[in-house]
Amino acid sequence: MPKLAVVYLSTQGNTKMMAEGIAEGASSRSVDVEVKSFYDWNPEDVALADGIAIGSSTFNYSMHPPIKKFIDKLVELDIKGKVGAAFGSYGWSGEAPVMIADIMRKEGVQVIDPVLRIQYKPTEKDMAECIRLGKDIAEKIKKL
Ligand SMILES: Cc1cc2nc3c(=O)[nH]c(=O)nc-3n(C[C@H](O)[C@H](O)[C@H](O)COP(=O)(O)O)c2cc1C
After folding, report:
1. Closest by alpha carbon to 12, among 57, 75, 49?
2. Residue 109 to residues 11, 39, 59, Cα–Cα distance (Å)
3. Model confidence over 92-115: pLDDT tens digits?
4. Were both Cys, which of 50, 56, 86, 128 would link to 97 (CB 3.0–4.6 Å)?
5. Can you give the pLDDT at residue 81?
6. pLDDT of residue 31
7. What is the pLDDT of residues 32-90, one digit of tens each?
8. Which atom of ligand 1 is nearest to the CA of 55?
9. Is residue 56 lining ligand 1, measured as CB closer than 6 Å?
């Protein structure tokens, strides 16, 4: 079965909810999904997946430094040609998912447009969007 790695950094659980919605959507389309905080992932294992979804909330107009470090390690590995997605909860500016998508694109990852940004805690409607994105990622992975 194709595999999707969902990696996130979330301080209050908002981006985590998004990650879980994405995982739910992808699982419903016969993709093997693992969803964990970046803290519990090894970049080597993420690089083995067919699809990589990375999420971070926005802090001080950027992504959080620890997930930036994680992504720096990930891009030292070969992730070219994989399917990617970037997402994150934000308050007022929401730069983090855009930055993540830019980095992945530079590495030759096929990043799904647009990035998914949700303001603060996802509503039920927002969660439906996350589930939808998970399904879209799964369909794209299956076409690789
Ligand atoms: C100290 C601090 C700085 C923040 N800076 C930004 C910011 O620059 N831009 C923005 O859009 N949101 C900012 N936020 C809002 C968070 O991104 C928002 O609360 C988000 O829902 C947190 O999601 P999480 O629970 O996944 O970490 C900030 C929040 C805090 C507490």
Report:
1. 57
2. 27, 22, 25
3. 999 999 999 999 999 999 999 999
4. 86
5. 97
6. 96
7. 999 999 999 999 999 999 999 999 999 999 999 999 999 999 999 999 999 999 999 99
8. 26
9. no
How many CA atoms are closer than 13 Å to the CA of 106, on its beta-carbon side?
11
What is the domain partition of the chain in residue ranges? 3-143
User: 3-143: which CATH topology?
Assistant: Rossmann fold (3.40.50)
Residue whose CA is at the smallest distance from ligand 1 atom 1: 59
HEC profile of the chain:
CCEEEEEEECCCCHHHHHHHHHHHHHHCCCCEEEEEEHHHCCHHHHHHCCEEEEEECCECCECCHHHHHHHHHHCCCCCCCCEEEEEEEECCCCCHHHHHHHHHHHCCCEECCCCEEEECCCCHHHHHHHHHHHHHHHHHHHCC
Residue 20 binned pLDDT confidence (cut-offs 50, 70, 90): very high
Q: Looking at ligand 1, which atom is closest to the CA of residue 64?
A: 27
Q: 12: Cβ below 6 Å to ligand 1?
A: yes
- 6 token code pair: 């969902």
